[in-house]
Amino acid sequence: MATRSEATMRKPAQPPRLLMTKVRPPVRRDQTVARERLVERLRHTPGIKLTVVAAPAGSGKTTLLGTWQESEMATRPVAWLSLDEGDDDPVVLWSYVLAALQEALPVLEVSSSPERLGAARIVDTLLPELINELINVGDAALVLDDFHLLSNNLARNSIGWFIDHVPPTFQLVLATRSEPALSLAALRAHGTLVEVRAAQLNFTPAEAELLLNDRFELSLEPEYVDDLVARTEGWPAGLYLAALSLQAADDRQALVSRFGGENRHVVDFLVDEVLEASEPATQSLMLRSSVLERLSGPLCDAVLEQRGSTDVLRALSRSNLFLIPLDERGGWYRFHHLFAQLLRAELEHREPGLAAVLHRRAFEWHRENGSVDEAIQHALAAGLFADAGELIARAWVRYVEYNRFATILAWLDRFPSELLREEPSLLLVQAWVHSLRGAREPAARAIAAIERLGRSDGRPLPDGFSSVEASLTTLRGLISWGDTRGGLEHARRGAQLEGPESPWRPVVSFAVGAGLYFRGDFEEAERWLMEAVELGLSRQRWETAATAVSHWSLVAGELGRHEQQTSLAEQAVEFVLEHGLEAVDGEAFVALGAALAARERFDEAVPLLERGVAIVRSRGHPRVIADGLIRQAAALQAVDSRQAAAGLIAEARMIVDSCPDPGMLEERLAALERPRRPQHRVGEATLSDRELRILRMLGGSLSERDIARELYLSHNTVHSHTKSIYRKLGVSSRSEALTRARELGLI
After folding, report:
1. What is the spatial distance between Cα 515 and Cα 61, in angstroms, rounded to a whole number?
2. Integer angstrom CA distances of residue 71 from 35, 64, 329, 408
3. Per the CB 3.0–4.6 Å rule, which of 220, 304, 607, 746 could disulfide with 741?
4. What superfamily does domain 468-673 belong to in CATH?
5. DSSP 69
């Protein structure tokens, strides 16, 4: 660990960038109508767990909530998050939720990180801490706009848990196009739900008159306003589109009279009217930039291959309610989702096939500007699968470091299956991602697909591996699914393929060291683990370095070097805390628990082992889980928690039996399963494990103070145990105690 202090001064790689425009509410424009009847309905009443605004596209949900949020901010903080399809990854979702809450509540402090926890541990670790923090901050609210875009069960279920546990001072508001997959019936039955539906969102004639005549200054007669409300059925999007088209109409009354009856027909008609009423340059920008989720002047210039888009966007946002500013500086915008869909349909009608070209230009711009997520999305939309694949193959490691497994897999799902089956670099990404998240069967399918290709040209891969063979071999060495012998063979082969200069060498070295540890070759394991630590620190592979230190501590314990074991375990825990790895690196807590158990400090060891085992369970790797369970069970036996220990032993037995070659774990577990001989019995009294250990140490040359230092105990504690030993043995001196112990076969 000599290089540790120097290495920890370097900043770790930053997580994938969050778009802070998503956590800011829409900017209110002059044309907005404040709908007090609906704003009042949204006011929070203590005991209401959830407020749902559910209606089809174009019903004015976002505009209403923006108005409500603005009015609420005078009395309490209201956080805002505009969801998109990328938030279907639970890690991404809760990273944004935290960012939104901290934007509105700077005092909110949450130590857990979704990007470090991973999707599986968000509910049991992050959300309880967040709930406790929200209790402390008092009255507050959070808006989740476009909730219908969440389809991942883990993401939706985590929101459901959050709703069940929010404090009465907190208001959660969801805006959604469709019925949310949440337990609304139960909330309704308990009176803890407020709902605003489509019929309530429709404009009244009075509200429509404010919009058309006050905000847009159209000077329509009351009967024409009423007629327009009737023809659109009060649908906000229809009225907004009508206002835009009526602004440029010479005969406004005649235009109103030509409306059809259904929203779909109204929209089809008005899109043409709105576009035709605009200048050609504005028409072109609206149509062609509709392929973008977010718009900026420089991005639109690149996509449209023109200049001056910044000025056009600013002017358009002042007159068009469907172009929504995402910041107060006017740097970024987005179209209302419904309007964007209509524009895309019109673009395909007017310029078939152009969308793919526009997506390609957007991909190139985002790639050059470092927006990896958006670059990949546009490449996939453009059908540029080779470009998207290269970006994914280069960037996947960074996304895995922050537990964004679902994001990577969602990208890969968009590839044509026949193309994915023929691309080894992407199959390797698939295999690595599934293996690291503990999904054995899909990982095996990806590996089998790689093997079926039967080819490796030996060229380096974008992620730094020297070849397909090296990547696959290292993966099998690192994650062997309980095959100690086979995994070690692969790890050693990986070490041949990935030399000391390889960016993957720290991982390879750890794989070899861990394989040797599980085989019981502790001295050779130590050499490889030391290399993994040194290289992991120097190359900022923080998690690899931390896990290697933890295993090195376990090895030191096996070699009887208990002071070093404790020192390394303490360093491992300190390291994971420094680097925010405490939610994913359970091995560090297992190592420290094992070190304390070796010192017979079982009361301190048990909670650490329990914490470590809970974390490694979430990764699904059998040998690591079984090793932790065995150590936890042994510590529980030492504190006479026999029933709890028996449950862990049974679980460990199931895991060990499932391993093709569990290595030393079989012997360890068998020893734990054997009944313990009652060798501590002395007449009617019983010596504890600690007393027996101190008795044995009394046979050496150490004083009581020396024994205390060796066992990390106070001198008074050791002296009390010694007096208890004398009493139980019926003796009054050290020499008599040793003689009596030998007679009883205790030493």
Report:
1. 56
2. 11, 11, 22, 39
3. 746
4. Tetratricopeptide repeat domain (1.25.40.10)
5. H
Among 126, 141, 132, which residue's Cα sits nearest to residue 48? 141
* Alpha-carbon gap, residue 77 to 471, rounded angstroms: 49
Q: Which residues pair with 144 in a beta bridge?
A: 81, 174
In Å, what is the CA distance from 338 to each residue of 32, 238, 267, 553, 645? 18, 11, 10, 58, 58
Contact (CB, 8 A) for 210 and 33 = yes
Answer yes or no: are the C-beta atoms of 130 and 98 closer than 8 Å: yes
Looking at the whole model, is its pTM more than 0.70? yes
Tokens of 625: 């889980």
Q: At what angle do helices 586-598 and 542-558 cross, to 10 degrees?
A: 20
Q: How far, rounded to the nearest angstrom, does the alpha carbon of residue 621 sit from its chain's CA centroid?
A: 19
Q: Tens digit of pLDDT for each residue in 643-702? A: 999 999 999 999 999 999 999 999 999 988 886 655 566 665 677 777 888 888 888 888
Was domain 681-744 assigned CATH 1.10.10.10? yes
Same fold, 20-201 and 681-744: no
Task: Tell me 168's DSSP state.
Answer: T
Distance CA 410, CA 721 (A): 60
Whether the Cβ atoms of residue 163 and residue 97 lie closer than 8 Å to each other: no
- Residue 4 scores a pLDDT above 50: no
In the chain, domain spans: 20-201, 205-276, 468-673, 681-744
588-646 pLDDT tens trace: 999 999 999 998 899 899 999 999 999 998 888 999 999 999 999 999 998 888 899 99
Question: In CATH, what class is 20-201?
Answer: alpha beta
What's the pLDDT tens digit per position in 297-320? Answer: 999 999 999 999 999 998 888 777
pLDDT of residue 273: 67
Please state, in angstroms and rounded to a whole number, the distance separating the CA atoms of residues 425 and 433: 12
Six-digit token string for 571: 């360093």
Structure tokens at 140: 């507050």
Show the tokens assigned to 146.
Answer: 């476009």
- CB count, 10 Å around CB of 166? 21
Please report, for residues 482, 554, 619, the alpha-carbon distance to residue 586 in angstroms, rounded to integers and kept in the order given: 18, 13, 10
Strand segments, DSSP code E, in 514-650 are none
Task: Give the DSSP H/E element, type plus range, for residue 323.
Answer: strand 323-325
Residue 717, classified by CB atoms within 10 Å of its CB into exposed (0-12), middle (13-18) or buried (19+), is middle
Asked if 552 contacts 533 with a C-beta cutoff of 8 angstroms, the reply is: yes
Answer yes or no: are the C-beta atoms of 173 and 30 closer than 8 Å.
no
Both structure tokens of 25: 């509410």
For the four alpha carbons of 33, 38, 40 and 45, in that order, the dihedral sign comes to: negative
How far apart CA 166 and CA 737 sit, in angstroms, is 61
- Contact between 70 and 25 under an 8 Å Cβ cutoff? The reply is yes
pLDDT in tens, 81-115: 999 988 999 999 999 999 999 999 999 999 888 98
Structure tokens at 73: 């901010």
